[in-house]
Write a structure and sequence with these properties.
Number of helices: 12
Structural class: mainly alpha
Strand content: under 5%
Shape: elongated
Distance between the termini: 44 Å
Order of helices and strands: HHHEEHHHHHHHHH
Largest sheet: 2 strands, antiparallel
Strand order of the largest sheet: 1-2
Length: 302
């Protein structure tokens, strides 16, 4: 089938939405937002308001402001997630470097014997070398000016220039179970569960950092859910929402409590949902399943 659609002007986009039943009381507002937020980008946010996706007709009473409210909520949700991811990433980076250095030496990450897969180890090392060589951090420059052997800095310096993706790959490829378990014990988790969560979190972070839609996303990279430890945590996950954001939030709150406290972040999350009047009923267009919001202490009235 050949693509033969033509680009529509902003005025034509507004007219099309009105033809399909969307109420646009302030055309200047709609024009401004469509001029700076791609029409195709906004389509994901008006899906819940469609009566029929095939015809793209909207439910009676659907207003353009309803779509903007959902769009704004998603933007603020991404910013909130980035705040939590930063704290988790820094903590995990610290634990990885600390246990690796104390159990295997300052330059343990250069020891191929500690890797499960030698090819992956070499690939990770090559990537890390590039990150270190292009780093402008003062502590990296200091090491390179002062020391020549090894030519790469100790693990507690190297970890500071690692991306979350690079760190995730290093941990996944770490061979000594004792070291993996020691790192995971910080969060009272099994090391296999932690490895998959950090890998999943890398994907979530990329979604947020690239301004992609987080609300109502079905993730392609998921995490392994805890089964037995820590006690009580497993019951808070929703097995039917394994590709949705809810389980990510449950794990995020758990780790934040291990790092510092999740209460402030949890409060901000619940207030965000309330302030934008986000539907948490169990439909295919929800953020989370309503039956599981008790973990976040959200009133069921929402």
């Amino acid at each position: 089938m050949r693509f033969d659609k033509l680009a529509r002007s902003i005025d034509e986009q507004i007219a099309l939405l009105q033809e399909r039943g969307m109420e646009i009381h302030d055309t200047a507002l709609a024009y401004r937002h469509l001029s700076h937020r791609n029409y195709y980008r906004l389509t994901a946010y008006w899906l819940p308001f469609e009566t029929d996706h095939a015809t793209h007709m909207f439910k009676p009473g659907t207003q353009f402001e309803d779509v903007l409210r959902l769009y704004t909520f998603d933007r603020e949700l991404r910013l909130l997630m980035l705040d939590a991811i930063e704290r988790v990433e820094i903590s995990f980076r610290t634990q990885w470097a600390y246990h690796l250095a104390h159990q295997h030496g300052p330059h343990a990450y250069l020891d191929a014997r500690l890797a499960r897969n030698q090819d992956h180890w070499q690939s990770n090392l090559d990537s890390l070398r590039v990150e270190i060589e292009r780093s402008s951090e003062i502590f990296v420059k200091h090491y390179r000016r002062t020391y020549t052997v090894p030519d790469l800095p100790p693990v507690w310096v190297a970890c500071e220039v690692m991306s979350l993706g690079t760190l995730s790959r290093w941990f996944a490829n770490l061979k000594p179970t004792k070291t993996r378990a020691a790192i995971a014990r910080t969060y009272k988790l099994d090391h296999g569960v932690l490895a998959t969560f950090i890998h999943h979190l890398t994907h979530v972070r990329n979604v947020c950092a690239h301004h992609s839609r987080l609300w109502n996303r079905r993730f392609t990279i998921t995490m392994k859910l805890p089964q037995t430890k820590p006690e009580g945590l497993a019951a808070n996950f929703h097995l039917g929402a394994d590709r949705r954001l809810y389980n990510t939030l449950v794990m995020m709150l758990w780790i934040l409590d291990c790092v510092d406290s999740s209460q402030e972040w949890k409060t901000a999350l619940l207030e965000l949902v309330r302030s934008h009047n986000i539907d948490v009923a169990e439909t295919r267009y929800t953020l989370l399943p309503l039956s599981m919001w008790f973990y976040l202490r959200l009133p069921r009235a929402l």
